[in-house]
Amino acid sequence: MILCITEFSVVNITPEEAAQALREIEASRVAMRSAIQAHRGHLHLWLWGSLWMSTSVLNWDDNPAHTTASSLLMVGGGLTSALIGILQGRQVRAPVNPRFVAVCITILLFGFVAWPVVLGPPHGYRAAFGLGTLVWMQLYIVAGLWFDTYLLWLGIAATAIILAGLVFLPGLFWACTLLAGAVLVGTGFHVRNSWK
């Protein structure tokens, strides 16, 4: 017999009952880890990595006619991303951190409103795509500092690749965006399979 003292009484449990309770605790832990792993963001990474790669392929020849198709891909991605968030939010509920949301809104307003007003609009589609990507990667970095380091390293890697394409390899810019999209997809697989 194992003697277990609770707040109000002493309870005798058998070794079999104790073993069963430990098995139930372990099963609960495994189920929770599985639920969290299934909702850690890999679907978003796969979606946006695939969209980046599609946009890269569309724009490889710098044909302005592809700008509309790329924009439609991004709008569709935003709607799909929202749907994924809604569906996953029903399965794993977590409190919304209002300070984190405020930081995200601030970064988006500065990136897409304040800086273009001060510095002028981007001088072309590549620059606009680069600016948008860098603003979103800043959000990844902040989220990584706030929540999970894989987002930090993903944000840093994609930022470095995009900056290299904009500054050092402008002729290979779309190849760099293709690589950055592949990094997102690969990170999605890592996130999905890393926590067993």
Helix fraction by DSSP (H/I, runs of at least 4): over 70%
Summarize the main sheet.
Answer: 2 strands, antiparallel
Order of helices and strands: EEHHHHHHH
Name the structural class: mainly alpha
Distance between the termini: 34 Å
Strand order of the largest sheet: 1-2
Number of helices: 7
Estimated radius of gyration: 23 Å
**Beta content:** under 5%
Which blocks of ≥5 consecutive residues have pLDDT under 50?
Answer: none
Q: What is the average per-residue confidence, as pLDDT, rounded to a whole number?
A: 82
Give me the count of strands. 2
What overall geometry do the principal axes of the alpha carbons give?
A: elongated
